[in-house]
Amino acid sequence: MTRQPASASSPSTPQKATDKPVPGPGRPKDLGKRAAILDAAKRLFVSHGYLNVSMDQIAAEAGVSKLTVYSHFGDKETLFSEAIRSKCSEMLPADLFEMPLEGSLREQLLAIARAFFALVGSDEALALHRVMLTQTDEPLRQLFWQSGPQAVHDAFADFLRARIASGELVIDDADRAAHQFFVLAKGHLHNSMLCGLLAEPPLPAEVDAHLQATVDFFLRAYAPR
């Protein structure tokens, strides 16, 4: 009778049932830690400005190691960019601009205007805007613009192009119209808030009346005759 060969495992290195597999280098990153790092970065960048915040501070604020911060974001510029993009996504989710949205075009534009004003009028956004106004580093200002305002502008310009294609709007230059819409939506209220001229935030009814007038003005310019 033929004897079966012995196991290939060496008797000097027996496997234990309690041994756990060693995670490989390609394992998924901890999404909870990533979120904590982003939240900490948003708070610190707003409070102290980009140049006055270190990766060590962000790691301590997030309750993780500095190595973990670098593992998720690579460098400080990338983390800053992602923090700005994350804040914009919280207030202006991508599906806000996707077709089809519920309701009339006016209702859709009003929803976008409300979300946009809530974003730019938040304490965090106002503080960050003031910080960026004091920055002398041009690449940093460009990074902020591309990660925040430009990304929102591009998404809205695409929304307008879809509405132009469907015949709901008549616009020669969607990029220019997108800039006009957001400037109108900010209006005197946002400028007053940014300059600290208001003792109290504007009342919701005042903001809504301003935004409804903005949308009506925009549609009078670009709705089909």
TrEMBL record:
Residues 54-73 bind DNA. Residues 1-31 are annotated as: Disordered. GO terms for molecular function: DNA-binding transcription factor activity; transcription cis-regulatory region binding. The keyword Transcription regulation applies. This is TetR/AcrR family transcriptional regulator. Coiled coil: none annotated. Residues 31-91 form the HTH tetR-type domain. Residues 1-12 have a biased composition (Low complexity). Pfam families: TetR_C_7, TetR_N.
